[in-house]
Design brief:
alpha+beta; 30% strand
Length: 553
């Protein structure tokens, strides 16, 4: 909703400053709630093991909807705005108004109490789940800045930055599953209504009790409808459909730019996203600690705000160019409890390669080198393994994301790279696969990582030229019907039929085959429509007549 409001304040996407980023409003006072689900990645691995990769993905998709829908509904009931999904966590924003006016003390108290009550309700919701998952919540408050950044290929990013998000990481040491943790500033706003189980002066408290009945009645009816009353027609239902994009409002016309290209194509063709599944993926987490430090030191200075936006713009485009040049995907650019982070991935549809691990490491090295040329420091964690890819959230609010222990490990390696002052660290699986493509890595150590276990850590150094070799056969996932259709065509070609495919409606091809006899006495052309997404109509002829031939393929 804050993105919708920011877009509404733009007269056109062409109204950009010289750096390519959009004019940004004054800082916005807000309360931030970071809700992190514990046990999520282990559950994903159990589902894949118990049900197999295909059925496990179906179960995972159903479970995600079952899990996120009450979380999102609860957040909205307390006037919270889902800002970002961060893996198996969500960042929720509470603000009195998007007009950038300074809220009164009572309004700040109200927002702090709304966020606290929301956290308590989320804990109750999570306690009723049937998957033994738990939740830890951290709450902070203060001024944040919103930025719309213009990337290459009309791919934009919306990022919210500020000290409140940075403070979420500082109170994480107090957080644990089942607990609600508040920064000292939030606690000062609501301490008359609650008690603390533990307090660290100047850092935060672990909330013990909270009396929600002591809130100011004049604010009880404050809802998203009143906060965003000018956008109520948009906020009523922000389900993206292709016809709305081509015929809708200014906001709906341009919100496409914030959606990854592969998802954009899926939405336009199908009207929904069905790209869920377990698949091998190389994940990059890029930490921009020096940029965040500079921002936090100067965010109170109006003079320094524009140069920092230029830096963000340069970072976005530099990372995009590096990742896109190796045919990867840029998923997110956000500030969370770990810092200012960009997330990239290799192996997401439709760009899948057998050497995605090598591509990921080469992109990481290129990112580090190119950012260094701009005077920007970064630390990168790279991992390879099976992840769940798909939509997280509900019909009210959702994003395309990748989830799994491999993703969590990449984030941990990123933080380890920062602490050990190394530019890039990859895991053993990435090194093993990339070695086949002559990516040279240096072994660093075997390290115990929080929530992950022991991980072999490597530092990628360079790539040496590689001779052309025959690529080994690999297994394909989720393409059974398409493979059958290819067999159908292959068998026709083996019979010396000349083939031509004409795309028809979605899922259909018109197949023209021209019988050419050796004696050249006559030619015959027939055509028929093949529905390759139908299990009955695909290949009944070729399967029955050529089962032995398919063995040879």
């Amino acid at each position: 909703h804050i993105l919708v409001h920011s877009l509404n304040r733009q007269t056109t996407l062409k109204d950009q400053n010289e750096s390519g980023s959009f004019a940004t409003d004054d800082p916005l006072w807000a309360v931030m709630l970071f809700a992190d689900i514990s046990g999520f990645s282990k559950l994903m691995e159990v589902l894949a093991e118990e049900h197999g990769e295909m059925d496990g993905a179906e179960h995972m998709s159903d479970m995600l909807n079952e899990l996120w829908d009450p979380i999102i509904t609860t957040s909205y009931s307390y006037s919270g705005d889902i800002l970002k999904f961060a893996g198996d966590a969500v960042i929720i924003l509470f603000t009195h108004s998007c007009s950038r006016s300074t809220p009164s003390q009572r309004q700040k108290e109200h927002l702090a109490k709304q966020a606290t009550k929301c956290a308590i309700s989320l804990q109750e919701v999570m306690s009723k789940n049937s998957h033994n998952l738990s939740l830890k919540c951290m709450i902070s408050c203060g001024y944040v800045e919103t930025n719309i950044l213009h990337g290459i290929f009309s791919r934009y990013e919306f990022i919210v930055m500020g000290k409140p998000i940075h403070e979420l990481g500082e109170v994480e040491e107090l957080a644990a599953p089942g607990l609600n943790v508040l920064t000292s500033e939030v606690w000062n706003l609501i301490k008359d209504y609650g008690t603390a189980a533990k307090e660290v002066p100047g850092v935060g408290v672990v909330l013990k009790t909270f009396d929600e009945n002591k809130s100011h009645s004049e604010f009880e009816n404050l809802t998203l409808s009143t906060i965003y009353q000018n956008d109520s027609d948009i906020l009523e239902d922000i389900r993206i459909k292709s016809e709305e994009i081509t015929e809708g409002t200014y906001v709906m016309n341009n919100i496409w730019q914030f959606i990854p290209g592969a998802i954009r194509t899926e939405l336009k063709e199908r009207g929904s996203v069905r790209m869920f599944g377990f698949r091998p993926c190389t994940t990059l987490f890029i930490l921009l600690s020096s940029t965040l430090s500079s921002f936090l030191e100067s965010c109170d200075s109006q003079e320094n705000r524009f140069p920092l936006r230029q830096t963000l713009q340069s970072i976005l485009r530099t990372v995009q160019i590096a990742i896109y040049s190796f045919e990867g995907s840029v998923l997110q650019f956000l500030q969370d409890d770990k810092g200012l982070v960009m997330i990239g991935a290799f192996g997401l549809p439709p760009l899948l390669h057998e050497d995605d691990a090598a591509r990921g490491l080469q992109a990481a090295m290129k990112i580090h080198s190119n950012l260094a040329d701009l005077g920007i420091e970064c630390n990168i964690g790279v991992t390879t393994g099976y992840v769940y890819t798909g939509v997280v959230g509900s019909v009210k609010r959702r994003e395309f994301s990748i989830v799994g222990s491999t993703v969590n490990t990449a984030a941990r390696l990123m933080c380890l790279a920062y602490k050990s002052n190394r530019p890039i660290i990859c895991d053993g699986r990435t090194e093993e696969i990339a070695r086949k493509d002559n990516i040279l890595c240096e072994f660093i150590e075997k390290r115990e990582l929080k929530g992950v276990g022991e991980v072999l850590c490597y530092f990628p150094k360079s790539r040496v030229p590689k001779k052309a070799t025959l690529i080994p056969r690999v297994r394909l996932y989720g393409r059974i019907k398409e493979l059958k259709f290819l067999h159908y065509l292959l068998n026709a070609v083996k019979k010396k039929d000349l083939c031509k495919l004409t795309p028809q409606n979605s899922g259909k091809f018109e197949y023209h085959h021209h019988h050419h006899h050796n004696n050249n006495t006559h030619n015959q052309t027939n055509s028929k429509t093949v529905v390759f997404n139908s299990t009955e109509n695909n290949n009944s002829d070729s399967e029955n007549e050529n089962e032995e031939e398919e063995e040879d393929e």
